[in-house]
Amino acid sequence: MIEHHVRVHPSADRLPREDQLAWKLAAVATGTGELDTDSAAMAVNRVIDNASVAVASLLRRPVAVARAQATAHRTTAPGARVFGTATRVPPEWAAWANGTAVRELDFHDTYLAADYSHPGDNIPPLLAVAQHTGRTGADLLRGIIAAYEIHVALVKGICLHEHRIDHVAHLGAATAGGLGALLRLPTETVYQAIQQAVHTTTATRQSRKGEISSWKAFAPAFAGKAAIEAVDRAMRGETSPSPVYEGEDGFLAWMLDGPGSDYRVLLPGPGEPRRAILDTYTKEHSAEYQAQAVIDLARRLREKAGPLARVRSVVLRTSHHTHHVIGSGANDPQKYDPAASRETLDHSVPYIFAVALEDGTWHHERSYAPERARRPETVELWRKITTVEDPEWTRRYHDPDPDRRAFGGHAVITLDDGTVIEDRLAVADAHPAGARPFDRSGYVGKFRSLAEGTVTAAAQDAFLETAAHLAELPTGDLDGLFPAVDTETVARYDAGLPQGLF
């Protein structure tokens, strides 16, 4: 790997393109050649994972709204598929609808380092463009692997959260790069597309703060749509704000560390395999990733705690990120509000710990149901739970050794008689270093569980067979990556939505 220093340069420096981060990211994309076997297998896992959570969210309102907006732009040829319909739409609109479906349940893959990310958000726009342009399964895999490589590098090297910039700013760059690899575009074209994508997808973190709305699901879909449009414009010979990262009025200077910025981004050198996707991990539970280990820890503590009415307090000692983003350190009263939105509750570790402690399980719908959140005994327990930052957990969160990196915490339960019950868990059970790491059978099991009642057993088998042979799929066979569902039921749900402009 090669370490690149990224800092602000005045316009008078005329920083050569080859020295700009956007060019270096583009070169990683266009230099992605022969596919690493392990990376390709993991990419198939993530295609399965995305389909799992997409079909489980088809009858949720934000997904239906995105689908309605997309299908209003239906096209005859060639276009791309939308989950839940037989309609083909332009690729940017397919990316919008499918990206929202994948993100809605907060239930697909993650990578945490200096910043946060859901690299699986790259897949919907890549799949849409691959369908629209008649690419093969191997082309799609190349795009996915390149996008993950760029995304992980940016998340490791450049923290956005510190400056309250939403993490999809890294997603736009990664998707544009992945599209360049998919389409085998020149480095110059990909460089321009990356710059436009970064420039247009930088937004504040208010989408994940306080009263969290459905935009949390739409935000990555917007980034994917914008990246497709950026690539289209760059292919037509148009340029973009440059240098988008290093410019004196650019991304680093005014959004991040300012004129004194000095970020270090590690990128593979020429000929190095693209293996960053192997550093990422998916979710067993439908909640913010930093709550995954907390759910498993609560399930483990349930029997030890006994009758929960006896609990006086629960303190979860955890990392800075967990405390300040989904814990009581966020200072968001909404995180303790029984009437809060689902999007808010899945970013409230006190709520999540309370329900997991009571139920001993977690469900993507039942655990967030309004009647579940308003249960009096749950509210009473929930408001006894707080988080505190522990420097040791913060250090482990950022440990450069993935075998020592931790995203969990140490729970201390104090009962009304003064008895203290405590336990700790470093990583979720499904994490690569956890008790039950996800392998292909884990992804298949997750798909079958979430597809039950929506996708027939035969259609499930057909989808899984297609995904397993993604690397060999010829042009035109990518439709098999969309599990067949009852489109009439979906259409009836969509018909009940309010009308918009389209």
List keywords for this structure.
502 residues; alpha+beta; 2-methylcitrate dehydratase PrpD; 60s Ribosomal Protein L30, Chain: A; 2 domains; four-stranded mixed beta sheet; two-stranded antiparallel ribbon; 20 helices; 45% helix; globular
Structure overview:
With 502 residues, this protein is α+β, with helices and mostly antiparallel strands. The chain has two domains: 21-279, Orthogonal Bundle (2-methylcitrate dehydratase PrpD); 289-425, 2-methylcitrate dehydratase PrpD (60s Ribosomal Protein L30, Chain: A, 2-Layer Sandwich), CATH 3.30.1330. The protein has 20 helices and eight strands. It has helices at 21-30, 37-56, 61-71, 91-103, 123-132, 137-157, 168-183, 187-200, 215-235, 251-255, 292-305, 320-326, 342-345, 349-359, 370-373, 376-382, 391-397, 440-451, 457-468, 487-495; strands at 2-7, 80-81, 88-89, 262-267, 311-318, 385-389, 409-415, 420-425. A four-stranded mixed beta sheet has the order 6-5-7-8. Helix 5 (123-132) packs antiparallel against helix 6 (137-157) and helix 5 (123-132) packs across helix 9 (215-235). It starts with a strand and ends in a 7-residue tail after the last helix. The model has no long low-confidence stretch (mean pLDDT 96).
